Amino acid sequence: MTAVLLSGRVGGTTHLEVELLASLPPELRLIGGLAVMCRVGSPHRTTVDLDAVARGLTGLHESIAHMAVTAQGGGQYRFEGSLDLDVIDVAPQSSEELVAELLAVGEPLTDLELNIVSLTWAHDGATALDVVAIDELSGERLAAAPGRLVATTSGLVAMKVTAIPLRASTRPEKRASDLYDLSRLLLAAGPDPASLVVMPPVLAAAVLERLTAWFVDDAGRDRTFREIRRFDEPSVDLDDVADAVEDLTSGA
What we know:
Elements: E1 2-8, H1 13-23, E2 29-31, H2 32-40, E3 49-54, H3 57-65, E4 70-73, E5 76-79, E6 83-89, H4 95-103, H5 111-125, E7 127-135, E8 141-150, H6 153-163, H7 172-186, H8 193-197, H9 201-215, H10 218-228, H11 238-251
Parallel strand pairs: 1-7, 2-8, 3-6
Antiparallel strand pairs: 2-3, 4-5, 5-6, 7-8
């Protein structure tokens, strides 16, 4: 089992998030900011909540809700310490079966349908990690969530690539944070071409097309730079990101 060490402060967000993660049903697959932190393997922008995917959320709801301070419905929960958990219920079938069903109507997949496919694919491909929060000064272990299923780098990239077109223009900060996350993920240990090859072809094609538009094409890269420059620690070199995208394109 691979262990991931996340540095933070006693009683800080990372400490509390890992503590909460350890208490949640093992069927949940971690996505979102904490999953990105696990996969980039170095400090990343802070997050204030947990995001997860699950298949059959109805059967898990009671076990989550009894630990929460509030359970608003729709997969949204609030816990002590003002920590929020959002759980997305994925399709009951595999991503391949889902794509076949959606394409059977004879129309191209919409942005929303591509996102649903990516969430299902990321859920089914999640791998187990021992997630550990340590004190950033002393290195003391603060909390541990052993054997938690976390979306892979490729899974996170697919989800973010398909989510960005769905972001409303009134939430430019969320689009910007997703682009920043993508930059960090593309410079981490993946996603490798083999992982993209095993994606449903329609999803892999969308991922490569959009990554090229945002990070390789001149106009798209300029816009991406303007959007992510608010995130300067750790900084990213978009030339390196463009090289990583071109490597994916040549290996796909």
